[in-house]
Every structure is written in structure tokens, then in C-alpha cells.
Amino acid sequence: MDYSYFPGCSLESAHSSYNDSVKKVFKHLDSNLHELEDWNCCGATAYMSVKEIVGFAISARNLAIAEKQKWDLIAPCSSCYTILAKTHRYMKELPELKERVNECLKEGGLSYNLKVKVRHPLDVLINDIGLEKIKEKTKVRLDGLKIANYYGCQIVRPEKGFDDREEPMTMDNLFSAVGATNVYYPMKVKCCGGMLMTTYEDVALKLSKEIIECAVNNGANCIVTTCPLCQMNLEAYQDEINKAYSTNYNMPILFFTQVLGLAFGFSDSELGIDKNLTAGIKINGALIHQ
Amino acid sequence: MKIVNIKVPGKLSWKEQDLRVSFLRQLEAVPNSEKIKSCIQCGTCTGSCPVSYAMDISPREVIALFRAGDMESLLHSKTIWVCASCYACQTRCPALIKVTDIIYALKRLAMEKNIYPPNFPVYSLSQSFVKIMNSYGRLHEARLLVFYFVKTNPFKLFSFMPLGLRMAKKKRIAYMPSKIKDIKNFQKIIKKAEQFDMPRTVGEVQYLKGAVGYGAVDKKTELESKK
Description:
The structure holds 2 protein chains of 2 kinds.
Chain A: E1 2-5, H1 16-28, E2 32-35, H2 44-48, H3 52-69, E3 73-74, H4 78-93, H5 95-107, E4 118-119, H6 121-129, H7 131-137, E5 146-150, H8 170-177, E6 181-182, H9 196-199, H10 201-217, E7 222-225, H11 228-236, H12 238-245, E8 253-255, H13 256-263, E9 281-283, E10 286-288
Parallel strand pairs in A: 1-2, 1-3, 3-4, 5-6, 5-7, 7-8
Antiparallel strand pairs in A: 9-10
Helix pairs in contact in A: 1-13, 3-4, 3-5, 4-5, 6-7, 10-12
Chain B: H1 14-27, H2 44-48, H3 59-67, H4 71-75, H5 79-82, H6 88-92, H7 99-112, H8 121-136, H9 141-152, H10 154-159, H11 161-169, H12 183-195, H13 215-226
Helix pairs in contact in B: 1-7, 8-9
């Protein structure tokens, strides 16, 4: 299968490991990702809260380019996924907005006619490729690895999409298919605080702490996430959390494609796991990274 | 959809009228935003909100205050800036009210009306973001944080250094921004889009009978007219 691929800004820098592991996993499953020609930032929530029409217009520029490529558009970053899907839906539901946005796009020689399907890689793995094929392609069973599946807000909630909003199971099913154990994890769709980490740090630290605490209490070896911002908050601020709450957490926070890549036999450096700031994880008794 | 027709309870001050109309215009860009009329004040939004403990006005009260015609308190609240936009309230609302999108509309309105303290964190972050976007078309994380801290609290930048160094060691910081090729057309799109965000003209809002949740007020006036 062929897909257009929208990496997004954070996958270009701080989370290149997510970018690398998505590409590795999809190639291993015989799917081709074609990077979107000259893509721009989706606008994220920061733009939407300043100037909405501008936010929609720059997001729609990506959709307009994807429309030319004719494949479904895969966006691994939760925020990009939501913003692109939201732009598509709003333009569909509000013809007036579509008209205005297209008037803006015309200035750049583009137009968008609602023909693109925005997909998350998790959705594609489960619904297009399928668990059977993933099982077939598994080289290293992840027996004994206890995973806390953390979905976060953006991929399940704002846009009613491929999974349940309160109790999503796609990631759980994915990892039990490759042999891992999913721990009881009621915090799976709770908010990590997002951008509040830069604006109201105390609030975000509390939210992130609760997410890590729950995984620790339920005996998880690692938290697996789909979102670069969640990964950043939970991992890079773990020291701050330990300082603020006198805890001693050292929980690895991995992208779901990194863990899946391990099951496909890729090494930790190929998947960027060695770029992690926290402790390593054990698979079949062997310590991966550090 | 004619959301501007949401009825106003009683007589509002000129300032309140102005804010209310601007807010309703903001809501026009949200599909099904007229559901704001059907709030039953159950509090599911507040109960679902992970940050309601840090708010001065809870999400349930946001809707109540809107209906009571008190936009000014809403725009001056900490609530609209503390919202992490996790959408828990919006997905659980039994009346299908777009609570998160309504809070976004309030944020935009507060910025449009310049209601926020100087060097306000959320606003500064958004502004820094917009500045980088307009010149590169893509976000550059390192630059965003530097711009942001210089605007709000330069000393914070130093406390950020240890984490920055750890990230740099792991090759997780891009030093040069990545720029899109077609930046000229990109900027043209933004320029055109900005025209659509021009400040809105304020219309006259009249007191309408039967305003949502204000049956009691109407009954009173009916009684008075009977007398």
C-alpha cells in the first residue's frame, strides 16, 4: 500500500526517533510512505487560539498538496493528526469556511476539495495492514514486557476516529499480538498537560506525575505513547517531577512504533531508543539500551 | 446556522453587548456551536476536567456565566488560559456542547480585545509561535523556547539549560530551522487569511423574550404587564 506521509515539525528535531521508527516499521510491513512535498507546520493548537482562519488555511495547504498525491495522508504526531482531521471536517461541515479557506489557498495556487483521508499510523497498522500480517512479520516476541498503553487526548478525543474515546484498545491489541503484556492502566486517555508545561508548569507536572505514578503502581516496564508532546512531558520532565514530589521515577517512555520495531527485530539505535533520556527496558531478559 | 440569534436575558450594558456579539461571531466558525443553548448544568464537564482544580471559574460555570450575560468575568478568568484543550469535557457532554471549542473562542476574543496581562505566558507563546511560522513555514522548537522565555522570563532560560544540554547530547536539538521551499506562496496564503480575521462590526442586541434559562424573568415581566 502507498500513503502520503506528513512527519511534522517535532519529528524533524526532538523526536526524530519517532520519524525513524515509523518509517522502519512501515517498510518492514511492505507499505510505502511518500513524504508530502514541501509540507508546512500544521499550525498546532497555538495558531488555532490566535487566528482561526489562518490556522485553517495553513493546515489546508497540506491537505491541498496531499490531494494531488491521491493517497491517504498519514500523520504520526497526535497534534498534527488532529489539526489536519479537524480542518478537513470543519471545511466539510461549514461550506462558508471552505469557501474562505479556498479563497486563501488560491493566493498560493492551490485548492482543497475534501478528498483526503487523514489517518494515524496506529489506525493504518490495525485496520489496513492487520494484526495477522503483523504477527507473521514478528521476529522477536516481546514476552515478559509489561506495557502501560498511553493514548493521550488528541488521537482519540476531538475527532471521533478509529478507536473508542474512553477505552481505546488498538494499541493494547497490537502489543498483545506481538507477545507483550498490557498492564491495567486507567490513565490511558488522561491529559499530560500538553503545552501547559511551558505556561503553567505546576499544573502540568501534577498531571504528568499521575500518569507515571499509575504505570509504576501497576508494574509496567515502560509507558508507550503515540504523541511527541506527551513523550516530552513524561520523559524530559521526569526529573522535575521527582524533585517536586520527592519521587524516584525512572520510567522509559517509548513511542509505539519503537516497541513494535523491537518486535520486528530492529536494534535500539535503528529505532532511536538510544536517544531516550530515561532508563532502558528489558526484553527476554536482555537490557535494551544503556 | 444563525447563532447570533441566541437570546439575551435582560438588558446588558453596552460593553457586555459588544463582548457578547463578538463572542457569538467567534462561535460561527464552530459547527453545532448553537448547542450552547441546551446546557443542563449537570457538571459532567467540570468533573471530567483534569485541570478544573486550578481554575477560578469551572467549565460548567463558563456556560452558566455566558447565559447570565457576564462575558467580562469569563474573559478576565484564569480558566480560559489554564485549559489544556484535552477535550474530555466536550466528548462527555450529554448535551453535545462544544465546551473546548467555546473556550478557544473565549481565548481568541480575549486576545482580540487585549484582555490579558502584559507578557502573559499563553499569549507570548502563541505570538512567538506565529512569528516563527510566518518566516519559516515550519516550527523550530529551540527558537520558540528562546523567543518565549526572552519575552516572559529570561531567567527561566537558565533553568532550562540542563535539560537542553541533555537533549543536545542525545542529538535531539535541531540548531538550524527547517524552511519550506514555497515560502512566498505560503506567506501569501497567510496574508489573505488574515483579512478574514478583521475585527468584527458590532450589531445591536435586543432583549428577547424567552431567553434560555430565564423563564422566571419572563414570567415576571408577563405578570407585570398583566397588572
